[in-house]
Amino acid sequence: MPFPTPRPGLVIDYSYLWLAKHRQGQVEGTQDQPCVIMLATEGAANGTVITVAPITHSPPQDDAAVEIPAATKQRHGLDAERSWVVISEVIRFVWAGPHLRPISRENAGRFDYGMLPPALFTRIRNLLVENARQRRIGLVVRQE
């Protein structure tokens, strides 16, 4: 199965490199996890440039995350634990890159969980943009 077309709102599985680990000199993510494509810029010199926000089970320490409703997680085949989209950091990379992962062993050729509902994605995007305007967002750029 080919890679999906990258578009904002699509949830993919990705080897996410947390900003704190990046600042410590780490260059590889330590675990694969769902991420939301927040921006896809076509026509870049090396291909489509993607910006993703991670999804985590760790409860946020502040208002820097948006909880994903249980029904949305179930519809997308994600686990039943509570999860949040982090809006305080993102990763930028050229699609598809070596860090995109299949969503499961049973679906080894599938790399996405589907699209977030438009209202939820819009809420996440608006909060992320506000964080960026206030310079409260971290960015990791992966070159490979």
How does this model look, in words?
This is Growth inhibitor PemK. There is one protein chain. This protein is of the alpha+beta class and 144 residues long. The chain has a single domain, classed as SH3 type barrels (Roll). The protein is 19% helix and 37% strand. It is built from three helices and nine strands. β2 and β3 form a beta hairpin. The chain is globular. The two termini are 22 Å apart. The mean pLDDT is 91.
How does the SSE layout of this entry go?
Elements: E1 10-16, H1 19-23, E2 31-44, E3 47-56, E4 65-67, H2 70-76, E5 84-86, E6 89-94, E7 100-101, E8 112-115, H3 118-133, E9 138-141
Parallel strand pairs: 6-9
Antiparallel strand pairs: 1-2, 1-7, 1-8, 2-3, 3-5, 3-6, 4-5
As an assembly, this protein is single chain
| Main sheet properties | 9 strands, mixed
Output the helix-strand order.
Answer: EHEEEHEEEEHE
Content of β-strand = 35-45%
Principal-axis shape: globular
Total discrete domains: 1
Count of DSSP H/I helices = 3
Rg of Cα set: 14 Å
Q: Indicate the mean pLDDT.
A: 91
CATH class identity: Mainly Beta
Structural class: alpha+beta
According to CATH, the fold-level topology is SH3 type barrels
Distance, first to last CA: 22 Å
CATH architecture: Roll
Number of strands: 9
Organism: Skermanella aerolata
Protein name: Growth inhibitor PemK
